[in-house]
Design goal:
Blueprint: H1 14-36, H2 45-60, E1 64-69, E2 72-75, E3 80-82, E4 88-93, E5 103-108, E6 117-122, E7 133-138, E8 145-149
Antiparallel strand pairs: 1-2, 1-5, 2-3, 4-6, 6-7, 7-8
Length: 150
């Protein structure tokens, strides 16, 4: 048997292998976060309202308060939302107390921090969050607004 001569073009060069690995690494870096993170659920309207109040406090450089009066949630910047029929917002912290017919829900400071706040939100059997119940908390140091189903 005759041996075949080895040609210079047999196999892949080191440069070709490195290029293929670089393309694979870039594709993995782009796609992996999308595959591993959970889809973010939409926020209830009240959470979006609280996020706007926090942003307003930071932008204006002033303290912003949020209070509940009857079925209306009001921010110190004049913005307010009316709770839908059947929606109940139950304050846990700060402790429930009515002062001047208002219940304090949250205070946001210009640096983005907040007082610790917690409340439960019960939604009616209508809209996007039909029948869902949420526990909403605001972390004091970061001012982060977290909502989890109960």
């Amino acid at each position: 048997m005759k041996e075949r001569p080895i040609s210079a073009s047999a196999g892949f060069s080191l440069l070709e292998l490195l290029l293929a690995l670089a393309i694979f690494a870039i594709a993995t870096a782009v796609l992996l976060p999308r595959l591993t993170t959970k889809m973010k659920r939409p926020n209830p309207e009240i959470v979006e309202f609280l996020e706007r109040q926090r942003a307003a406090a930071i932008d204006a450089g002033r303290v912003a308060t949020v209070s509940l009066t009857g079925g209306t949630l009001s921010g110190s910047n004049g913005e307010h939302i009316d709770l839908a029929k059947g929606v109940r917002l139950t304050p846990i912290w700060p402790k429930p107390s009515i002062y001047l017919a208002r219940q304090l829900v949250a205070i946001f400071y210009p640096d983005g921090t907040s007082i610790a706040s917690e409340f439960d939100l019960d939604n009616p059997d209508q809209g996007e969050f039909h029948g869902e119940r949420f526990h909403i908390s605001i972390t004091p140091m970061q001012g982060e607004i977290v909502h989890v189903p109960r």
